[in-house]
Amino acid sequence: MSNEKTSYVLVRVYQPVASKIGYEKTGALEFPVKVKDEGITIKEVLSYDEKYGQNLLSFFEKNDLNKITTVAVNGKITHEKLSKIVSSGDTVLFLPLYGGG
Q1: Is 78 a member of any domain?
Q2: How far is Cα 99 from Cα 9, in angstroms, rounded to an integer?
């Protein structure tokens, strides 16, 4: 039996971005991503998920991330976006943009 611990980062993508990557239900898309290493970037986490993560990366490559979504980790907004380092147990949120002031 292996001593290797299974580690996950939870990714939650809110509308309208979720619908842009093929999620057809209302509400947020949520999926756990199995990660092999601690201290990896959000971009690397997304690359591990073949269904939604890679679609999300492709969507962000074609569109200006700053005009589409706000990125948060464990409820705290990060300006590092996809280069933010995360670890097992973290939750990555792709929130809709809100205006105001």
Answers
A1: yes
A2: 28
| CA-based torsion, 73, 77, 81, 83: positive or negative | negative
Question: Which amino acid, 16?
Answer: P
Q: How far apart are CA 2 and CA 84, in angstroms?
A: 30
For the question of whether the overall pTM of this predicted structure is more than 0.85, the answer is yes
Residue that the structure tokens 């999300």 belong to: 56
Q: Among residues 25, 9, 21, 30, which one has the least CA distance to residue 60? A: 21
Domain span at 19: 7-96
At residue 4 the predicted structure's pLDDT band, cuts being 50, 70 and 90, is low
**Any idea what the CATH number is for the domain that residue 62 is in?**
3.10.20.30
Q: Quick check: is 88 in a domain? A: yes
pLDDT digits (tens, 9 = 90+) for 25-79: 999 999 999 998 778 999 999 999 998 999 999 999 999 998 899 999 999 999 9
